[in-house]
């Protein structure tokens, strides 16, 4: 079978499984690159693919397209899924990506410091107080929601008022793999969301089903969120920290760990499919907790 038709069959199967739009798009981008590479190498049919050629493609991604280890492992995993499907359909005898080892990832998680978060909040509050526009009120509420819940960008933009219970102080999140989970809300965030809700009612007269909207009362998009953080980064000019929704998620996790929060509970709040993902945060910020423990432990001040 031609590789492009094999990929088409695989994508039809994945769409039937009702995977998220982001997952489908990620597959499409990887396979587009893969098809362009196989065309250049004059590899047309799946029977011509073997471990050596798959390794050559991954090397091309690393050396020619400057993919980092995390991206390489993601694309390796996507190719494995494709070949597993073809093996299950008896279109291939074995998976040529099975024997290829993952690339070692030198993961560095950079996030906001407390000082940077205070600077951002101070700036957003000033704009909100001075202008009192939809953008000013919305952006202030968005930033508070992100650092106060650890939501992903897509989870925030798809959030609906029907998902939020301001009385019980909870919100329902439909995260990765379409799993519904409940996230608690702080009293401060409940007040801000209630104010934003009232603001939208006064502004539009009709409340959108989505929590965060644009000037036309249409759902605020992930791209719009990226533009907000891009503008914010230009104002703040933090030398080390990337201004993004995911940095807010990292900050939430960092604050949780540094304040003595339980790692298994954090894993549930962040909706990680595996606690190993959450343990990466502990690896990076657990040392800071240990240093504070030694610093403030009463035994450190006693003559023993």
Automatic annotation (TrEMBL):
Q: Residues in domain Core-binding (CB)? A: 1-87
Return the protein name.
Answer: Tyrosine-type recombinase/integrase
Gene Ontology biological-process entries: DNA integration; DNA recombination
SUPFAM superfamilies on file: DNA breaking-rejoining enzymes (SSF56349)
Give the record's keywords alphabetically. DNA integration, DNA recombination, DNA-binding
Specify whether Protease is a keyword of the entry: no
User: From the UniProt record, which GO molecular function terms apply?
Assistant: DNA binding
Q: Where would I find the Tyr recombinase domain in this sequence?
A: 107-294
Query: Which residues does UniProt call coiled coil?
Result: none
PANTHER family associated with the record: PHAGE INTEGRASE-RELATED (PTHR30349), TYROSINE RECOMBINASE XERC (PTHR30349:SF81)
Looking at the keywords, is Magnesium present?
A: no
């Amino acid at each position: 079978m031609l590789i492009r038709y094999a990929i088409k069959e695989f994508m039809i199967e994945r769409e039937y499984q009702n995977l998220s739009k982001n997952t489908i798009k990620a597959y499409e981008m990887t396979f587009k690159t893969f098809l362009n590479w196989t065309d250049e190498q004059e590899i047309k049919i799946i029977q011509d693919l073997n471990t050596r050629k798959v390794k050559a493609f991954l090397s091309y991604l690393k050396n020619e397209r400057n993919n980092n280890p995390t991206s390489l492992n993601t694309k390796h995993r996507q190719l494995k899924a494709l070949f597993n499907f073809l093996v299950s359909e008896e279109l291939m005898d074995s998976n040529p990506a099975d024997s290829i080892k993952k690339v070692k990832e030198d993961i560095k998680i950079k996030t906001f410091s407390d000082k940077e978060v205070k600077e951002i909040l101070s700036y957003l509050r000033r704009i909100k107080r001075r202008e009192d526009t939809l953008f000013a009120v919305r952006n202030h509420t968005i930033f508070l929601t992100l650092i106060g819940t650890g939501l992903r960008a897509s989870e925030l933009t798809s959030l609906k008022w029907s998902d939020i219970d301001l009385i019980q102080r909870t919100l329902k999140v439909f995260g990765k793999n379409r799993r519904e989970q409940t996230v608690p809300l702080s009293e401060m965030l409940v007040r801000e969301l209630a104010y934003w809700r009232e603001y939208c009612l006064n502004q539009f007269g009709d409340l959108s089903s989505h929590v965060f909207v644009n000037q036309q009362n249409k759902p605020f998009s992930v791209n719009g969120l990226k533009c907000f953080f891009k503008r914010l980064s230009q104002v703040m000019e933090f030398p080390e920290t990337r201004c993004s929704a995911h940095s807010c998620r990292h900050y939430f996790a960092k604050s949780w760990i540094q304040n003595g929060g339980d790692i298994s509970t954090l894993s549930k709040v962040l909706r990680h499919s595996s606690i190993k993902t959450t343990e990466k945060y502990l690896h990076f910020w657990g040392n800071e907790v240990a240093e504070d423990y030694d610093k403030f432990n009463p035994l450190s001040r006693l003559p023993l």
